[in-house]
Design goal:
The chain has four helices and eight strands. The longest helix has 15 residues. Helix content is 29%, strand content 40%.
Amino acid sequence: MPVFWALNMVIEALKSENVSAAAKLEAAYLDTAWSEKQIEQARLREDTLYLSATEDGKLCAVASCVFSAYEAMVENVAVAEDFRRRGIGKDLMKAIEDEAKARSLEQISLEVASRNTAATELYKKMGFSVAGVRKNFYRRQNDDGLVMIKEI
């Protein structure tokens, strides 16, 4: 997995010293947050990519995906409030796409809350399209989940 830099931002595979901060970040923003144990296990698996974005050593965003025989399924993307609207989510998704292409996969899939317009617009700009709706998928937010797919 290559390392990406953007100004003072570093995007790379999550390091063990950031697992606790990653779990806290996910818990703050996601209905489907993973525990520290799940994150630690995931970052060590060959079929899973768990990325972190840090700025000056501070964890500001994470993204994870699981690879199958033909697709990369994005599991979680979380960007801390103070770091939003800076392209970090896009950079994380680009890193996932690059890895999916390197593995010769056919598509990337994800689910996003239907009311999360910032994320859905980003995904659409990146070439994702809505393939389906999961009713009341995000229970904490009382929101439907949009299933989005990008052929690569």
